[in-house]
Each structure stands twice: as structure tokens, then as C-alpha cells.
# Entry
Amino acid sequence: MWFDPKCPWAWNTSRWLLEVERVRDVEVRFRVMSLWLLNDGREGLEEWYERWLADTLGPVRVAIAAEQKYGTPVLRDLYTALGNRIHHDKTPIGRELYLSALDEIGLDAGLADAAEADDFDEALRASHHAGLDPVGENLGTPSIHVPGPDGKVNAFFGPVVTPVPRGEDAGRLWDGVLLVTAAPGFFELKRGRTESPRVG
# Structure
């Protein structure tokens, strides 16, 4: 799953996937994308969304710097540490957030410096495009890749869920998502959102 740490919808999907691991033979791997990169240069964004995007680059830079130093598996715990602070504790995005999350899982505090530097932006762009290019135009996070029935990558956006499905409910949703996304020529199933994300 490709995530941006600030996105509450991606956070819910990630917590759902961790539930899926408990009830299905699934191993979730997390990768980094950037809503800032996705929207860079786009015109006509709503004013509130432009403001919301303003501080999204720092967390993804810290995450990609950690991945470069420690390897992709570190993203699972780092995403959880960042996400708990952002979505549950409502910690403001900034240096204290990064230092606290890095300390919780025993990572080098110096990685917090990456938030204000472009040293890892090439790696960030590569990760971002690896996740989103197979999904399609104008789609973001959550983006998920799974092996399809033919062994090829089956990449899709979503699901967007609230609240987080738990237990066997999580497993049944997973079964359904795999079923519809594996169908040749299946592109979209959508309904209007009637509530804001209740983060899990």
C-alpha cells in the first residue's frame, strides 16, 4: 500500500489492511507516495485543500529517508508512529512530531532533518510513481498493488472506508475488493461520501 502519512483515508485503509492480515493469508508492505507531488502544478484546487497540502511534504521526506537508510520494512512501524500522532493525538506536523515518532521505534533522530531538505526527493518521486503510475491518472492514496490471478500486478485506488472494518468484516471486504479488481475491464465502483473519516 502506498501512503501519505497525513491522509486520513489512507490511514483508515492501512489499519484495515493490518486487520486483514489477522484473518487472511496476507502480508502488507507499506510504501511512500506524496499528495504534495500528486497535486504540484495543478490548477483549480480548492483553497482549503491547498492549505491542507502545505505541510505534507515533510512527513513523506522523513519516511523516504528512513526507508533509504533502513529498508522498506521500517515503513510499517514508522507509518504507525507518525499516523498515531497525526490522526489520534492531533500532533502538529513539524520537527517534534518527527523526533517523537523516530524515537519511539529507535531510528536515527537525524532523519528529522530530511523534512526540510530535498536530498531524498528523487527517491520519493521514484516511489511515488512506482505506486501511482500503474493505478491511473488523477488517483492518489490509498493505492494498493496485489498479485492478480494471472500473476501480473493488479493496482487500484482504494478502498476508502470509515470506520475501519475489524475482524471478519475486514476479511470479507478484502475478499470483495480482490474479486472486483481482478475482473478484466473493471474500472470503477463509487458512491458519494456521506461522512468524514473516523480514524481507526
In short: The CA atoms of residues 151 and 182 lie 11 Å apart. The beta strands are 2-3, 31-32, 143-147, 153-157. The first strand starts at residue 2 and ends at 3. The first helix runs from residue 8 to 23.
